[in-house]
Each structure stands twice: as structure tokens, then as C-alpha cells.
Specification:
The chain is of the alpha/beta class and 454 residues long. The chain folds into three domains: 10-65, OB fold (Dihydrolipoamide Acetyltransferase, E2P); 98-124 and 287-453, Vaccinia Virus protein VP39 (Rossmann fold, 3-Layer(aba) Sandwich), CATH 3.40.50; 132-271, OB fold (Dihydrolipoamide Acetyltransferase, E2P), CATH 2.40.50.1070. It contains nine helices and 21 strands. The chain has a seven-stranded mixed sheet with strand order 8-7-6-9-10-11-12. It has a seven-stranded mixed sheet with strand order 17-16-15-18-19-21-20, with helices on both faces. The longest helix is centred in the first third of the chain and has 18 residues, at 91-108. It is globular, with a radius of gyration of 24 Å. The mean pLDDT is 94. The chain binds S-adenosyl-L-homocysteine.
């Protein structure tokens, strides 16, 4: 039982955990308090702003002892743009928080008590790792701003320097801003759905340092585009300049059509020995350095000998499939986006891999269908979106009963739910769980899990 806890009262608490949005979590006896703009390990005085039955919200009124895990490295703007939640938490602590988060989900949601979660595999230099940035462009008090939307808002926080994006972006932003100002190009307005320029997307191939600049416009043509091309060409890394035509009134960033203004329609990225075409619209993992770590772990868990038939469900542009194909007899990939499947086929060709076959469709429809037709699997890799695997796919996995399942997950909560089914209903044992830090300074965590049929 708690003593009476009232709104507007002050309490001294220690921040013992951090939530999804990076908010601090502390306790007053067994009453939980959520506090923004504090860090794990801080001791603070809070004033309660909202009080519910078992939990409430507070704001910090005084820092009593700053967290020993605070670091001064990172972004000057703290969490202003809403992209990073952990900028000022020591990197080692971030990695431990992520390991703990996966373990907590497996225990609390999956009721998997005896599973050990390995230490999170982190980056040696956890900065400037992102190969893709999408900056909204809007008018702010009569001035053109290029930045990020603040957390849970459409307010632009201008970006001058960002610790997780490629440093070349700063240079590109300057050129784009100067061009838009010089030629007085109209800027998109969300309310009226008027104005031309909506977003700037930059993609980078880290291996070759090739850059693609994509301007998202609410129309067919960009006036004076030749002048833009001329000024961007002064940056030698830029190999592709494209327009994305997006005339719908929606917060979705990209439209479905692109046209090339200069150079090639895609850039190339290399992960390990494999090359991948990165086009403006296709999904590609955002951290190429850690993608290699993640895929190598998946490959290690699959432990292929060259004789296996392997399925890669939710395969995107076939990245994991091609890693597996180097070591397997045959790999089948399934993905819902038809263009991604086209890319997967091209990527297989680009790398001279002939033992792959790709299907466009829902994993929960394509795999049961092919299974009914007699297709089998020795190993299945799944890499679903945040909502996890569809129930029908899980039931098919149970029926197909491959010796090994490798589960790659970007959400520990749905991972825990699916592992509960696979271990309790489908006869699998979790052998190892490995978190990989694909998104330093954010609360996101990726995991790879090795399951074996018992
Ligand atoms: N394995 C890939 C992509 C993982 S992201 C990589 O590492 O790059 C998850 C992918 O699942 C996305 O490409 C998404 O388009 C796809 N997807 C979402 N729902 C799906 C479904 N029901 N069936 C098949 N693919 C799906």
C-alpha cells in the first residue's frame, strides 16, 4: 500500500529505468512515476503533474545527483528532434539496457524463464552510422527550414549537425537550402496541401561512399532543376539525384514514382562480400556496419553445410537470403512488396547466386501454399516487421517442422509472444538469444534467436 500521493507534491526519486520514449521511470514506494528529460541513474526532485491509481507523471524541479552514466558526448540539441532518446547515456549502459529489455520481455510476455540473453553486440564507434535520412522541409516564421520533426509533433527542429547521420548530409542541406532560397521555390504546407518541396531524402552507400539525393515534391517538375544539379555536382560523392513525386495529402513521406535528374537511378552498398542495389523506394537496413554483424549471427545460427533447403520469410530485397545462399543448397525468399522482390532477383544476379527463388506475397499465404504443394524446409529464417509473425505462418512452421528456425526481430515484445508459441505449441527450444545494436542512442533493439526442434 502507498501512503497518499497527491498531484503537485514534491518527491525525491531515483530513475531506475527508461521507457520506450526515453522517459525516466522512478518509484515512490510501489507507485511508478514517469519523468521526461532525465536519465537512468539520476537522483531528482520531481513535482507530480498527474496522479492515477498506481502510476503518475512528474517533472523534474531539481537535479539532486546526476547519473554516473551521463556523458557529454553526443548531440548538442539533446533530444530536441525526437530521434534519439539515449544521447547522453554512456554507450555501455545503453547496450546493457537493451539486453535487459529483451530479457524482461522474454520473461514477462513469453514466460521464458530459463533463457539466457547474450550481451548486446554494439558498435566500436556508435556515431554517424545511418545510411538514410529523411528531412522534412517547411517554412518556419517566414524562413525555409530543413530538419526533423520534434517528438510527437509537426514542428521542425532545424538540423545543423547530427551525430548519427552521415556528416556529408550537412553539406547537402546547405546546398539545397541555398537553391530553394535563390530560386524562391515554394515549400509544402501540410494544412493547405499547397507548395512544392516536401522532403529531402539522402541515402549513402558506406562502402563506396556513394550518395543519392532525393527531393520529394508535390508535383511533376522542379523549376530550375539544372541549377540544383550543377551545385550538387560540386560534391563528388553524389552519384544520383532523383525527384520523388508525391501529390497525396498524407504524412507518408514518399510517393510511388521517381524520376532521375542526374546520374544513376540507384546506388550500391556492400555488406560483407555481397553487393546490393539501393533504390530510392526499397527498404534497406539503416546501419550497414551492424547489418553485417546481424546477418553473420543469423548465418552462424543457421549453421549451414551446403545441403539445406532454406526459407527466408519477410526477405525484403533478399539481403539475408543471399547471405544464406552462399552456404545453402537452395534459398526461397518471400516478401510482400513486389518491387523489393524484383530487387532481390536483381541482387541475386549481381552476385552470381543461382540457387535462389523469390516470391512476392504474404509470408502467411505463400509459405502454407507451397508447403501444401510439397515444398519442405530444413531451416527457416524469419525477419518480420514490428508486429511479429502472423499466426498462420507460425502454424505452418509447426507443421513443416524444420530442424532449425532463426528468428530476427526488431521488437522484443512480439518476439517474446512468438517464441512462447514456438516453444510451447510447436516443439522448439530456444538455444541462444543475441541482441544486436542496430540503432545506437535510441531505444530500439534488434535480436537474433536460434531455435532447434526437440
Ligand atoms: N530481411 C530484410 C527485411 C526485413 S524488414 C532485411 O534484413 O533487409 C521486414 C520486411 O517484411 C519488409 O520488407 C516488409 O515489406 C515485409 N513484410 C511485411 N509484412 C509482410 C508479410 N505479411 N509477408 C511478407 N513480407 C512482409
Amino acid at each position: 500500500m502507498n501512503d497518499a500521493i497527491y498531484k503537485a507534491q514534491h518527491y525525491e526519486i531515483e530513475i531506475i529505468d527508461m521507457g520506450e520514449g526515453g522517459e525516466g521511470i522512478g518509484k515512490i514506494q510501489d507507485f511508478t512515476v514517469f519523468v521526461p528529460k532525465v536519465l537512468l541513474g539520476d537522483r531528482v526532485e520531481v513535482c507530480l503533474t498527474k496522479v492515477k491509481k498506481n502510476y503518475g507523471f512528474g517533472k523534474m524541479v531539481k537535479m539532486i545527483t546526476p547519473s554516473p552514466y551521463r556523458t557529454v558526448e553526443g548531440c548538442e540539441k539533446e533530444t530536441a528532434c525526437g530521434g534519439c532518446q539515449f544521447q547522453h547515456l554512456a554507450y555501455e549502459k545503453q547496450l546493457e539496457w537493451k539486453r535487459q529489455k529483451v530479457e524482461n520481455c522474454l520473461k514477462r510476455i513469453g514466460k521464458l524463464e530459463d533463457v539466457t540473453v547474450q550481451k548486446t553486440l554494439g558498435m566500436e564507434t556508435p556515431y554517424h552510422y545511418r545510411n538514410k535520412a529523411q528531412y522534412p522541409i517547411r517554412m518556419v516564421e517566414g524562413k525555409i527550414e530543413i530538419g526533423f520533426f520534434a517528438a510527437k509533433s509537426r514542428r521542425i527542429v532545424p538540423v545543423t549537425k547530427c551525430c548519427i547521420q552521415h556528416p556529408i548530409n550537412t553539406q547537402i542541406i546547405k546546398v539545397i537550402k541555398a537553391f530553394l532560397n535563390e530560386y524562391q521555390i515554394s515549400i509544402y504546407d501540410d494544412e493547405s496541401h499547397k507548395g512544392l518541396v516536401r522532403h529531402l531524402m539522402i541515402k549513402t552507400g558506406y562502402k563506396a561512399q556513394d550518395v543519392m539525393v532525393c527531393l520529394v515534391i508535390n508535383g511533376k517538375k522542379l523549376p530550375h532543376s539544372e541549377a540544383l544539379v550543377e551545385s550538387l555536382k560540386a560534391i563528388p560523392e553524389i552519384k544520383s539525384i532523383v525527384l520523388n513525386h508525391h501529390m497525396d495529402k498524407t504524412p507518408v513521406i514518399l510517393g510511388k514514382e521517381c524520376s532521375v535528374l542526374y546520374g544513376s537511378e540507384s546506388i550500391t552498398e556492400q555488406i560483407g562480400d555481397l553487393k546490393f542495389k539501393v533504390s530510392p523506394l526499397a527498404f534497406f537496413q539503416v546501419n550497414p556496419i551492424q547489418t553485417k554483424v546481424l546477418y553473420q549471427k543469423a548465418l552462424e545460427y543457421a549453421a549451414l553445410t551446403g545441403e539445406e533447403i532454406v526459407w527466408d520469410a519477410y526477405c525484403g530485397i533478399g539481403t539475408i537470403s543471399l547471405f544464406l545462399a552462399q552456404k545453402a543448397k537452395k534459398v526461397y525468399g518471400v516478401e510482400i512488396i513486389p518491387e523489393a522482390i524484383e530487387n532481390a532477383r536483381e541482387n541475386a544476379k549481381l552476385n552470381g547466386l543461382q540457387n535462389t527463388e523469390f516470391y512476392a506475397g504474404k509470408a502467411e499465404e505463400v509459405i502454407p501454399d507451397l508447403y501444401k504443394k510439397g515444398v519442405i524446409a530444413d531451416t527457416i529464417v524469419v525477419d518480420p516487421p514490428r508486429k511479429g509473425c502472423d499466426e498462420k505462418l507460425l502454424e505452418t512452421l509447426k507443421a513443416m517442422a524444420p530442424q532449425k528456425i532463426v528468428y530476427v526481430s526488431c521488437d522484443p515484445a512480439t518476439l517474446a509472444r512468438d517464441l512462447a508459441y514456438l516453444t510451447r505449441e510447436a516443439g522448439y527450444k530456444v538455444e541462444e538469444v543475441q541482441p544486436v545494436d542496430m540503432f545506437p542512442h535510441t531505444t530500439h533493439v534488434e535480436s537474433v534467436v536460434k531455435l532447434r526442434k526437440v
